[in-house]
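User: Show me an example of a complex going from sequences to structure tokens.

Assistant: Sure. Here are the input components:
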Amino acid sequence: MIAEWIGGGLVRILTLVKLTVDISQLKYESSGEPLIDIATRKMGDSDKCAVEEAIRLKEKYNAHTVVVTIGSTLDHERIIRDAYAMGIDEGYMVEVDGYENLQAITIGEIIKSIVEMTGPYDLIILGAGSLDTHSYTLGPIIASKIGVPVIAGVDSLNYIDGYFEARCIMEDGTYIYRSKPPLIVTVTTEANEPRIPTLKTILKSKKMEIKRLKIESLNVKPEKIDLADLKRYVIQRKNIIWDASEDLEKVIDNLFKLLVSEV
Amino acid sequence: MDFEFSEDEVRFRESVREFCKRYIEPRWVEIDEKGRIPVDLIKKMGEQGLFTIPISEEYGGMGGTITMTAIAAEEIAYHDPSVATAVYTLLNNGWPLLVERYSNEDVKKEILPKVAAGEAFYGIASTESHGGSDVAGIKTTAVKKNGAWILNGEKTYISGIREIQELPEGGGYFLVAKTGKPEYGHRNITAFNLIVKWNGKIRHGWKPTIFEEIGRRGISTGGFILENFEIEDKYRIGEENKGFYYLMEGFNVARILVAAATIGSGRWALDQAIEWVKTRRLFEGRPLASFQGVSFKLSELYGELEAAKLLTYRAAWLADKIYIEKNPKWKEKDLNIPVALCKMKAPEATTKIYEELMKWYGAYAYTKDCNAFRGWLGTFSYTIGAEGAQNIMRIIIARDLVGREYVKG
């Protein structure tokens, strides 16, 4: 059940957000191994663009915006509050064990169930690689589950005369897609520059309710893929040192060749 | 005992950090080189809610705390280690707090929302040419005439002179002037909202000048002469002849924020130092950090900065209890030592880090290609004076430790 889009009226937008490691604050062992276990978590970058896009539409079209995340740790609570501080109106956390390894299809079923429970929605907007173990498939999976069109990898979204216009930049050119609501859109990090919460909105977000949904209440059987092994990227310096005091040109040439060889 | 920041404080710090990475860090060298914080950046900072953080929402403030303001000053200074942007921020947070606490209701509503929005500047004007530390000895006078005040005198080493002239709205100062007989000392000083430019118009009787400074160049410093400058009585701050006490209250907050700003700059310098001593190799390829002469010093500097940080946030926590929560368990005099300690320790710890960083860099540090000197000169200003000279801090501490009768200043 998806609502009809009514220009200027109250419309409903659903966004999805996931936890990622905040690379900018990552610390490393002296061996170069990243300390993932103690790393700060944050909302994914493309999810943040999806939230921003939802809020911009809310500001233009008086929409009601809802955010969902899968998982119920303190970090999950925090990214819901961050979405609130940006301007989202209502948030849900889905309580499920082992949320990290859920299959994208299971996530799709969870979202379908949430749409049935909390919808209808005119637009579902999510980051291009959101909540789907980087498979970039969640948008299309949700679309197939609930039977609405999807436009993926969008970097610009507008609503004009009853239609969404979405721009996607591909290798062979720039595509402009047009579709009536209801619609599912996945956005890239090029879509916008997400707003930064202010102190006022941070303090306000703390008082907002976060609703919790148990996986059992959604009638979804979690399917997982076991993670057998994970080799993190190790950041190490090359420790190549050239003495530039005698022949600077030669050192520059060496550096140039090295950089070219690594491209 | 709890040494953790609250969730709100952590999230606020992250939001300030994100703002700084996006809008301040890419411009800080340009700000220092050109000697000005661009007006568009000031406006953006206002939109982000970085001014009037501890002021009530009722007056356009953010409804935060002094601790949160210290967090903002620290983060901003990390991303502009010259501390100019942080100093601009802390002035427009600390001194407006006195407007909220002691000004006329109409005046609060007139001034504070424009400072919050970054459209107007609000700083402090107390120092005079014969010496900033001797506040009781100021010579600027305010004489009541037909229900208004006529001010005459001169103030010097005042921040924000150019910014007031460049901002669309203007701004002004928390100013102190003599209003009674000279023999009454500090008990004949009254505080005023000296609004020198408002609605874009400079007021009659204000003659400003701008100095050329060696560091912290992004925010202007100068002075002004007041010639028969007229102020309506409604712009008086608090009671007549109580200005000295309001000023000391303002200094309590400003000193905490200055300490926080120098800590932010010190953190930046320490990060540069750690990166350098790990990567710089000498004497058969040994990293600098492998020499104990370097690593021991690094540990000491880190310890001094951490100590200064603890002193600063302890003072901020206490200031919140007294000024924001108005908790009767603590009195204002309880802030004497904590505030003086953090203002004494933080700038000194930070300038020591810069001095060692520049020595570890070697000759490179003595060129303008290396930006360490910008942080060094910026934070050094707070070991000279600004919000109270270092030896005044020592006098305050000693007075409380051994008694006023032994410490005459």
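The lines above are the inputs; the final block is the predicted structure for all two components together. Chain A touches chain B at residues 24, 78, 81-82, 85, 193, 196-200, 202-203, 206, 237, 241 (CB under 8 Å).
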